[in-house]
Amino acid sequence: MLQLPALAGLAQAAKTTGFKLSVRVEPVFRSMDLPQMMEKVAEAGYQGFEFGNWRAQDAAAITKLKNKLGLECACLVGNRAVNPKGMTLVDPADRQAFLAEIKASTEAAQRFETTRLVTLTGNELPGVSREAQHKSVVEGLKRAHDVVEPQGVTLIVEPLNTLVNHQGYYLNHTSEAFEIMRGVSSPNVKILFDIYHVQIMDGNLIETIRKNIGSIGHFHVGDVPGRHEPGTGEINYANVFRAIRETGFRDFVAMEYMPSKDPMTTLAEVRAMAAQ
Asked: Three-state secondary structure along the chain?
């Protein structure tokens, strides 16, 4: 059971970092079930947790434990996978299946008491121009806005790297991601800015964050190379965290990394780094 000092730690984390801290639990904690991982997140003094497959979880039980631990469910995954077959954004033929999936996930968001859905574009279509696929993504997100907006849910669309991890994925550069946001023009559709992926594809992290913070709804954190905890690679995360805080961003910055050592030690170190 979470003790009072830990609850005080949650409030202190928000006070010192400005933004809220979350953990994408599966890569950080392995060989545990979701309730056990949630308890670890609370023990680490983080305010939020997020996980992959909401369909495999009992929403009532998870929400009850979430509230007991004083945690927030930071987000759910809206359309299943990096390349969700038959429900992508890049293919207009997938539109109705995509919207049906977003509707189901929006209903799940109510049960899990969250307001964000990670949204993936799917892989690029061979033989189809980037222009046509870009247009399809914008149109699909505009249609999805009509599904999520009445429920107060925000889609967070994720660019991924295609040099190391996700060869073939459509949305792989931030320049196009923010162009899509301008095309959709909705406060309920924003970017999930995964710092690991952006560093691999584009770099220029701090300036990109500063210029586009109004279109960013969520951050993911992992160092390069290897997607381990901050401090193991080439990204100066103390400076990046400071830049995020100085923009006035107050939503979630989530740890999505594979620890190179004891997970709880890494979470404590990153939490301290985020408050510098």
From this structure: CCCHHHHHHHHHHHHHHCCEEEEEHHHHCCCCCHHHHHHHHHHCCCCEEECCCHHHCCHHHHHHHHHHHCCEEEEEECCCCCCCCCCCCCCHHHHHHHHHHHHHHHHHHHHHCCCEEEECCCECCCCCCHHHHHHHHHHHHHHHHHHHHHHCCEEEECCCCCCCCCCCECCCCHHHHHHHHHHHCCCCEEEEEEHHHHHHHCCCHHHHHHHHHHHEEEEEECCCCCCCCCCCCCCCHHHHHHHHHHCCCCCEEEECCCCCCCHHHHHHHHHHHHCC
Superfamily of structural domain 4-263:
Divalent-metal-dependent TIM barrel enzymes (3.20.20.150)
pLDDT higher than threshold 80 for residue 10: no
For residue range 147-199, list pLDDT tens digits in order: 999 999 999 999 999 999 999 999 999 999 999 999 999 999 999 999 999 99
- Mean pLDDT value of segment 74-97: 95
Name the residue ranges covered by the structural domains of the chain.
4-263
Q: Please, which pLDDT band fits residue 17 given cuts at 50, 70 and 90?
A: confident
Has this prediction a pTM greater than 0.85?
Answer: yes
